[in-house]
Amino acid sequence: MEKVEVISKELIKPSSPTPPHLRSFKLSLLDQLSPPIYIPMIFFYTGKDGDNLQQSYQVAKKLKASLSKTLAIFYPPAGRIKDDDTIDCNDEGAEILDARVKIQLFEFLKKPHGEVLDQLVPGDILFTRSGAEDVPLAIQVNLLVCYFRTRL
Known about the structure:
The chain is of the alpha+beta class. The chain has 5 helices and 6 strands; from the N terminus they run ββααβββααβα.
């Protein structure tokens, strides 16, 4: 049973372009030797009393604006993995997904299911370095819908 539904997927570009002299980012030896996998991290936050669905959309909007500003300063995640040792800092953007989760947080934390956990992170954790398609940073914002249904 699918409990997570991806509503939208977009690329967040840096708020200002990467200077031409910084367009090629050489990966460290450690990065070059590490296996080509994403490192998934999941953070859970509870809403404040009185929060509604519209306020949660505003939080997601602020996160996207903050990401855009951050990518202007820390620019490699907005590029594409070019080969085994270089990131092309071309400002194509980091991938961000908005998803709705049909489970309550306390229910999930009480007995986490691996199938749901896998759906809370964007795409496959394993990927192959195949060229311009590789996105160094992918983020998924999950909104637990049941939380708001019980409070409306």
